[in-house]
Amino acid sequence: MSSNDLDALLRVTSSTYRGETPPDIAFGTYDGAVGRLVLAVTGKGIAACSFEAENDVYELVSRHVGTFIGPDARRLDPVRRELDAYFSGRLRTFATPVDLALATPFARTVLQKTMAVPYGTTTTLERIGESIGRPRALRAIGNALASNPVCVIVPCHRVVREDGALGDYAGGQHAKQHLLNVERKASAPAGR
């Protein structure tokens, strides 16, 4: 699906429900400090906050979550405001519920453990593995983190290598370093 096709589809969906029933899945983008994030919000919460191309996220959401997808500022704008507050260092915990419908059962387990990593800190694949009782499943854990459909909000950027190196990240190492810097700066005691 081309970008023009996606734009046309979203316009049709938007005009279909104008003033009537909103789409089942709100779909849009957020342009922030680490680039463009593609957002999809279901009735359960945010299902995508992704660095992937809009078309790819749209197709994934339509295959696994639902097909009535369109813009819905009422559901997207609160997420955008939280992202603004996070990137400015004013938000440590997202209030937006997370819908891990796009993750496999194993990935859900890994991502739920990742959500428990405190703001401004990091952990390792090894510690995640130990916490889920799968200390040797490092490759599978890495794959689960790499396929995180809700980047930033589900903080897979807080998982680094055992040697302290950043490791891979869907948005690139620059984005991962930026996210960690935002959290470290906001967590630093006043006057530092």
UniProtKB/TrEMBL annotation:
Signal peptide residue numbers: none
Annotated catalysed reactions: a 6-O-methyl-2'-deoxyguanosine in DNA + L-cysteinyl-[protein] = S-methyl-L-cysteinyl-[protein] + a 2'-deoxyguanosine in DNA; a 4-O-methyl-thymidine in DNA + L-cysteinyl-[protein] = a thymidine in DNA + S-methyl-L-cysteinyl-[protein]
CDD domains: ATase
Coiled coil among keywords: no
Domain Methylguanine DNA methyltransferase ribonuclease-like: 27-100
InterPro entries registered for this protein in UniProt: MethylDNA_cys_MeTrfase_AS (IPR001497), MethylDNA_cys_MeTrfase_DNA-bd (IPR014048), MethylDNA_cys_MeTrfase_DNAb (IPR036217), MethylG_MeTrfase_N (IPR008332), MGMT_N_sf (IPR036631), WH-like_DNA-bd_sf (IPR036388)
Keywords: DNA damage, DNA repair, Methyltransferase, Transferase
Domain Methylated-DNA-[protein]-cysteine S-methyltransferase DNA binding: 105-184
NCBIfam families: ogt
Protein's name according to its UniProt entry: Methylated-DNA--[protein]-cysteine S-methyltransferase
